[in-house]
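Exercise 7b. Backbone tokens:
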């Protein structure tokens, strides 16, 4: 029961902090779009952080599992959840979360105008969630934020 209450509170906090940055993002392309159109997988005019399809995950998300951090953004989007071991581990949860987070970063950077505040906010929120999940050894927190980002990544994608 206590775990459910903590999870619900975490979801409220995560969802509440994700909404303000969502207001300025006009692109809603999915992970699959960026996996197949990697030319849009970049930070555009946003500089915090700067990224391309070739950026190492650990350069933007420094506390992830070493296997996850050694992948580039594009490699992570293409990787199965079990690329760094069993999908039900923290590393598997990091892959699931980071797929959606990377798509969210690219959506913010490719918005018109670019939503650099959402790029920075998404990066900070993702890093905070990863750190918290590691300290609590709780993969569910990663999955919960992934679901929020997934819902934000659904919608109108006008990039071509």
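Sequence design result:
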């Amino acid at each position: 029961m206590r775990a459910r209450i903590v999870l619900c509170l975490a979801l409220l906090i995560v969802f509440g902090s994700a909404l303000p940055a969502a207001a300025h993002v006009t692109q809603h392309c999915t992970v699959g779009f960026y996996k197949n159109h990697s030319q849009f997988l970049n930070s555009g005019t946003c500089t915090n952080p700067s990224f391309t399809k070739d950026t190492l995950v650990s350069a933007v998300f420094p506390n992830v599992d070493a296997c996850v951090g050694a992948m580039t953004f594009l490699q992570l989007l293409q990787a199965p959840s079990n690329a760094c071991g069993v999908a039900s581990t923290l590393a598997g949860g990091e892959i699931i979360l980071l797929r959606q987070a990377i798509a969210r970063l690219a959506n913010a950077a490719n918005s018109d105008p670019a939503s650099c505040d959402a790029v920075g906010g998404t990066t900070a929120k993702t890093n905070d969630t990863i750190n918290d999940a590691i300290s609590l050894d709780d993969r569910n927190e990663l999955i919960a934020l992934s679901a929020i980002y997934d819902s934000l990544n659904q919608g109108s994608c006008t990039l071509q």
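Instructor comment: Residues 6-12, 14-21 have pLDDT under 50 and may be disordered. Helices lie at 2-22, 31-36, 57-60, 66-69, 73-78, 90-109, 116-136, 139-152.
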